[in-house]
Amino acid sequence: MHRRQFFGACAQAAATVAATSAATAPPAATGLADADSPQATANSTPPFKLSVMLWTVYEKLPFDQRIDKVAEAGYHAVELVEEYKNFTKEDYARFRAKKRELNLTVDATSGISHGLCDSSQRDAFLDEVRAKLPVLEELECNKLIILSGDKVPGQSPQQMHQSCIESLKRAADIAATKNVGLLLENIDPEENPKYFLTSVSEGFEIVRSVHAPNVQFLFDLFHDQVAEGNLLAKLEKNLDLLGVVHIADVPGRHEPGTGEINYPNIYRKLGQLGFNGYVAMEFMPQGETVAALTAAREIAMAWGRANRSAQLPAHGRPHAAA
Questions:
Q1: By CB neighbour count within 10 A (0-12 exposed, 13-18 middle, 19+ buried), where does 40 fall?
Q2: Residues 128 and 161: beta-carbon distance below 8 Å
Q3: Which segments within 252-320 are labelled E, that is strand?
Q4: What's the Cα-to-Cα distance from 135 to each of 47, 122, 193, 218, rounded to whole Å?
Q5: Each residue of 163-193: pLDDT tens digit?
Q6: In terms of Cα–Cα distance, which of 78, 82, 83, 117 is closest to 99?
Q7: Which residues, at least 6 apart from 313, have a Cβ–Cβ distance to it below 8 Å?
């Protein structure tokens, strides 16, 4: 199905929802702009917060022009990897001024090279976390993405699982001194067959076992669709541990509507659940980047509002494990 057909179908389905419930859904339309017109007003409030993972867009442009493009597409948050790696104090100051000019937030960054599952790396991992905290202050960012790391030869899955728990517990104490949250992320085995944490269900188990208020899970839907699937059930069962959601379609890591994931249902579920964290676009646009990001934002906003009156338990309440 082509993108235009997909978004038109999304809008038609939403209109059906609106006719059968008290919720507001996007009206039926034949084109992308018409389908998403409810989101085109300056006073629109998204049902959850929206962001863009910067590595996916305009890689060859200077940093400040890249965030200009994100703002042009209507986003007010960005996630970083290590685009700031060589920043000086002056660079950080210019960036802070720039993001205030754009009304932009850095909602999360990665950049920790040591993993959790190898206990022999724990001290080096914790040193990295300590060293990253002043950087997060410079970025005015309070979320740090953490990876499990690759599997350790000779160790059992249970040993690596326990090492992840222990490393996260200790990192959580360090991060809490600066009010920083940690986000544990999954990666699928096709992208990295050596990576330990390919199971989202196990990721939620680890976060639940850490039992620290500043440790949550970064649910990458692209990776989980490749690895396991059953996305909606995991969202619903683990809402209390959900920090950030990453968005891309399968296959190809392109924008929603180009692959097999039913993103209208994903957004509608997040809206029903009352999720109030960040939903970050981490896809490789097939067409013009600003247009693709804008379309993705508007579809997320429209479907996140659909059936929102049929609220499920609010974000933060306990749910069963996956």
A1: exposed
A2: no
A3: 278-281
A4: 30, 20, 31, 21
A5: 999 999 999 999 999 999 999 999 999 999 9
A6: 78
A7: 239, 273, 274, 319
What tokens appear for 139 in the block? 């970025």
Among 109, 161, 112, 167, which Cα is nearest to 136's?
109
- Position 176: which residue type? A
Residue 196 is classified by DSSP as S
Give the span between the Cα atoms of 54 and 50, in whole angstroms.
13
SS3 state of residue 220: strand
pTM above threshold 0.85: no
Q: Is 242 helix (H, G, I), strand (E, B) or coil?
A: strand
Express each pLDDT in 252-306 by its tens digit.
Answer: 999 999 999 999 999 999 999 999 999 999 999 999 999 999 999 999 999 998 7
3-state secondary structure of 105: strand
CB count in 10 Å sphere of residue 190: 11
Q: How far is CA 285 from CA 180, 249, 296, 302, in A?
A: 31, 11, 10, 20
Residue 302 near residue 25, CB atoms below 8 Å: yes
Question: Exposed e or buried b for every residue in 156-189, given b needs 16+ CB within 10 A?
Answer: eeeebbbbbbebbebbbebbeeeebbbbbbbbbe
